[in-house]
Write a structure and sequence with these properties.
Layout: H1 12-16, E1 20-23, E2 30-33, H2 62-75, E3 79-80, E4 120-127, E5 145-155, H3 164-178, E6 187-195, E7 198-207, E8 210-223, E9 226-240, H4 241-249, H5 254-259, H6 261-270, H7 277-287, H8 295-309, H9 313-341, H10 350-369, H11 375-386, H12 391-395, H13 397-427, H14 433-443, H15 447-456, H16 467-474, H17 492-498, E10 505-506, H18 507-510, E11 516-525, E12 528-531, E13 533-534, E14 548-552, E15 555-565, E16 568-573, E17 583-588, H19 590-614, E18 620-625, E19 630-635, H20 642-657, E20 662-668, H21 669-676, E21 690-696, E22 700-703, E23 718-727, E24 730-737, H22 740-759, H23 766-800, E25 804-805, E26 808-814, H24 820-833, E27 837-845, E28 848-855, H25 863-874, E29 876-881, E30 884-889, H26 895-905
Parallel strand pairs: 3-4, 10-13, 26-27
Antiparallel strand pairs: 1-2, 2-6, 4-5, 5-9, 6-7, 7-8, 8-9, 11-12, 11-17, 12-16, 14-15, 14-17, 15-16, 18-19, 19-24, 20-21, 21-22, 23-24, 25-26, 27-28, 28-30, 29-30
Helix pairs in contact: 2-4, 7-8, 8-9, 9-10, 9-11, 10-13, 11-13, 13-15, 19-20, 22-23
Length: 906
């Protein structure tokens, strides 16, 4: 715990207005107040909720609270900016937007680029899942989605905007003048904030037990426990929009204040009656002191409500547990709509994992409330409620609903297979937390399902109250930085050596059509060469490196690998460089480069077409461009249909025919983001103030390092060669462009020619011949089916007349055709029909005999042991287990002899 410096909190504002510094008698925190009587910091859990008794402006909705906040700060010189998506596309170390300051990390907070405005005001929808298990029971203290209204000021060494005094003054004026809260009931509690490698003192603004805002003064960098003062000092505030609505509406739960009539609609759809008002208001009083992860605290919470309302403990518990599930469904369905509305595709990795986590927890809650209610219908109500505030919900409604329906289906399939998957683990008699997490992570099986199955086997499974919070915490950020990087093939000593040189001048960006160049040699080391400028593209951004040759002192070397170390390009040649010349002449393999340019530009062309056909949720998940083909992996929740693939291909070729210009632009980051949005960062987020953008006019715009054409017409042609689902939520597209299209078509023609030879057809008649063969094959199959039907009737007669030994009917039949799969299918059918049957199928093959044996459920014979005895007696091999065995006898065998042998054994 950081030792707070009292001087950080002694503000001129407090002195001017007569605030006193006090110490909370419970939590021992220092706080500032105008109220002589306060002896606590007025924050939970030190104080129970009593803000319903505090006067304020009446009944602000969430929208009205947001607007009032933004207008107040706009009036006070702050520029309103648009909120960012809830998925942090501009961050490579974080999946979700968890606070407003995330909007400016790391590019603004590091000083790399200026903020979009200074000072500014924003209301940022944020998602935090670490407390997901607590949502509902605390009646609104915990939410997975909330709006963080914030005003930010960025103070540079040469330009101060405002700091602590002004920040606290703004908070005081907003709460007293705009929300009409009595000033003597406002408390500024001293605290300390740390996050994302930064730290600083802060004030938590509390009223009547409820924290309404946090005012952070980001002024330190945290480095190995040391606090290093930053040159850029940032005012980082966060006001709870939903809490302001709750505070002003004075409702017993935040959910009524946030969701209004939607809460009543949910109650009607789910048949959940509202608890008696006495229970709700007593829960309101006690909720601030409730520790939802502590079972004893939860028990005391119910006991207190019971004692003060006259309802029994069980009545209170039943009311509150059911309402908690209802509230969590309200919260989760809003979170789901925002996650999907901003383009997240549910999957087993990344932000998609977190979306699926929320969806499945909502579906689990739905199971416990009412069956046969669709989560999609509940989310649809959220879209109607919040669509005005977040237009992306309306724009992407069909995608959101379609995905939820798909996820509901997958969840049901998960539950069905969950019982089978967990049965083996349950045999061990114990299930640990790691087991529960493994089953959830690997198979999506909720712990409640495992616990239910375990109970049937008298196995006790302890599910932590915060199970889903544990899961969310483990997946809130990438284990490694999310960046598409190719693994360096350079030795470590060469990497270290390269870092000693100045930045390489990149000629391939200045003129991607140049084929040769001259440059100065800066350094050589064995087979490695560094130049002051180069035309050779280094591996990066999914594009492999150029190849070619260089001439040094009239000696020629083949360039076999090119890589970039920071901003220095390293060339690897085919042999050691012996000469010490100053100059070099280089030529790239132009045909190879041009194919790479076509495939790289084709990847951008494909991305634009995918968004048009599949939807705006499509996002790059991986890419590779080689001279042979292009590959693009994208987020999508199902395999595209044949019609969709044709339309994607048609649109791509249409844009080629339109000969659209391809602009190679350099823009400052803020202007680029404002113009193109965060779709810029398909292939990663460059840590530079200026971004290189490849813009296919009115089609696709991306930050990209690669080499590209200047007109879509140069792509020449576009053909998708393969589409496959490579993992849940990820679809792979492979394609060829330019001269690779006829080459690929030639391969297909060769296949058709080979097929024609096999079919014995003339060129152009392959299809008719294949159809004729299919008809012949169908006719033969029908004949086989009729023969089998007659033969199976004879088998039934054989079973009915079979000898019975120790209540077991025994028969062996000879199969006239060599079809093992049919034999096994027949055995399965017969042993299901006759519980007391032990039956074998004999299949003769040359001088060997294959025997398949099966038994009905009432036959208490271990066929694995039986097969070994038969194998030993008749010179064979094989095995089996339980009610099935398979063996090979190395000679032809008499069925009667085999039957008698088994009779004797029984």
């Amino acid at each position: 715990m950081v030792r707070l410096n009292p001087e950080d909190y002694r503000l001129e504002f407090f002195k001017e207005n007569g605030f006193q510094r006090k110490k909370c008698k419970i939590g021992k925190e220092d706080f500032w107040t105008l109220n002589q009587e306060f002896d606590t910091c007025q924050d939970a859990p030190d104080t129970e909720y009593w803000f319903d008794k505090i006067s304020s402006i009446n009944g602000l909705s969430v929208r009205e609270a947001r607007e009032k906040f933004i207008k107040f700060f706009e009036k006070n010189g702050h520029t309103p900016i648009k909120p960012r998506p809830v998925v942090a596309r501009w961050r490579e170390d974080l999946y979700l937007t968890i606070a407003s300051i995330v909007d400016f990390q790391p590019h603004v907070t590091s000083g790399l680029v200026p903020p979009p405005a200074n000072p500014l005001v924003v209301s940022q929808p944020s998602i935090r899942l670490e407390d997901i298990d607590n949502v509902g029971l605390t009646i609104g203290r915990h939410l997975t989605t909330f709006e963080m209204a914030a005003h930010h000021a960025f103070n540079y060494p040469d330009k101060k905007i405002y700091w602590k005094d002004e920040t606290v003054r703004y908070a005081y004026e907003f709460f007293t003048k705009e929300l009409k809260i009595p000033g003597d009931l406002l408390v500024f509690k001293e605290s300390w904030w740390e996050g994302g490698g930064n730290a600083g003192p802060c004030f938590e603004v509390t009223v009547g037990g409820l924290e309404l805002a946090t005012l952070v003064f980001m002024m330190y960098k945290v480095d190995n426990g040391n606090y290093i003062e930053l040159p850029l000092k940032i005012v980082d505030t966060g006001y709870g929009v939903e809490r302001m609505a709750w505070f002003t509406q004075k409702t017993p739960t935040a959910f009524k204040a946030i969701f209004g009539n939607i809460l009543d609609e949910y109650r009607k759809i789910l048949d959940v009656k509202e608890p008696p008002e006495k229970i709700l208001w007593e829960a309101f009083r006690a909720a601030g002191r409730l520790e939802p992860e502590n079972p004893e605290s939860v028990k005391e919470f119910y006991e207190r409500i019971s004692k003060n309302t006259g309802f029994t403990f069980d009545e209170v518990k039943n009311y509150m547990e059911l309402d908690a599930r209802l509230y969590s469904l309200l919260d989760h369905s809003r979170t789901i709509s925002l996650m999907l509305g901003d383009g997240i595709v549910p999957s087993n990795t990344g932000e998609g994992y977190l979306a699926r986590l929320v969806i499945r927890r909502a579906l689990k809650q739905l199971m416990f409330i009412k069956e046969n209610v669709s989560l999609a219908d509940l989310v649809d109500l959220q879209i109607k409620l919040w669509g005005v505030d977040f237009p992306q919900l309306i724009d992407n409604k069909s995608y959101i609903i379609d995905v939820i329906i798909d996820e509901e289906k997958k969840f049901k399939e998960t539950l069905n297979r969950g019982i089978k998957l967990t049965s083996k683990s349950l045999k061990s008699g114990t299930i640990s937390l790691d087991d529960l997490i493994k089953f959830y992570d690997s198979y999506g099986i909720p712990p409640e399902i495992i616990a239910s199955e375990a109970k049937k086997r008298n196995v006790n499974v302890e599910i932590p109250i915060n199970f889903y919070s544990i899961i969310a915490s483990r997946h809130k950020a990438p284990s490694t930085v999310r960046k598409i990087e190719e693994k360096s093939r350079l030795p470590e000593e060469i990497v270290s050596w390269a870092k000693t040189f100045k930045q390489t001048n990149l000629l391939f960006h200045q003129n991607p059509y140049a084929k040769s160049f001259t440059a100065k040699i800066l350094g050589t080391k064995g087979k490695y060469l560094i130049l002051d400028s180069t035309l050779f593209y280094p591996t990066g951004g999914g594009q492999i490196n150029d190849m070619g040759k260089v001439s040094i002192c009239d000696k020629e070397y083949k360039v076999v690998n090119v890589e970039k170390v920071d901003n220095v390009v390293v060339h690897e040649v085919d042999k050691e460089i012996e000469d010490n010349c100053e100059d070099v002449y280089g030529e790239i393999d132009w045909e190879r480069r041009y194919r790479l340019m076509r495939h790289h530009t084709g990847t951008h062309l494909l991305m634009g077409a995918l968004r048009k056909v599949l939807g705006d949720h499509v996002w790059q998940a991986g890419a590779e461009k080689t001279p042979e083909k292009g590959r693009l992996d994208v987020t999508h929740y199902k395999l595209p249909s044949k019609e969709e693939i044709k339309e994607i291909e048609r649109l791509a070729n249409k844009v080629i025919d339109e000969r659209r210009p391809i602009n190679h632009l350099y823009m400052n980051r803020t202007d680029a983001e404002n113009k193109y949005g965060f779709r810029l960062y398909q292939g990663g987020v460059p840590m530079t103030p200026t971004i290189r953008i490849i813009d296919i006019e009115n089609w696709d715009s991306e930050a990209c390092f690669g080499t590209h054409l200047t007109n879509t017409g140069e792509i020449g042609g576009f053909k998708i060669t393969n589409v496959e689902k490579i993992q849940d939520g990820i679809v792979r597209f492979e394609f060829v462009a330019g001269t690779r299209v006829p080459e690929e078509m030639e391969k297909e023609e060769n296949k058709i020619e080979e097929l024609g030879k096999i079919l014995g057809s003339k060129q152009g008649e392959e299809l008719q011949r294949a159809k004729a063969l299919m008809e012949e094959n169908e006719e033969l199959n029908n004949k086989i089916k009729s023969y089998r039907k007659i033969w199976e009737e004879e088998v039934e007669n054989s079973i009915n007349n079979a000898p019975i030994v120790k209540n077991v009917r025994i028969t062996f039949i000879k199969l006239l055709e060599n079809d093992i799969s049919y034999a096994r299918e027949l055995l399965k059918k017969l042993t299901s029909k006759y519980d007391d049957l032990l039956i074998g199928v004999i299949i003769e093959n040359d001088n060997k005999t294959q025997i398949e044996i099966a038994s009905g459920k009432n036959v208490k014979v271990e066929l694995g042991k039986l097969s070994k005895i038969i194998s030993n007696k008749f010179n064979g091999s094989g095995g089996g287990k339980g009610s099935y065995a398979s063996l090979i006898i190395n000679e032809k065998i008499n069925g009667e002899e085999l039957l008698n042998t088994i009779k004797d054994l029984l």
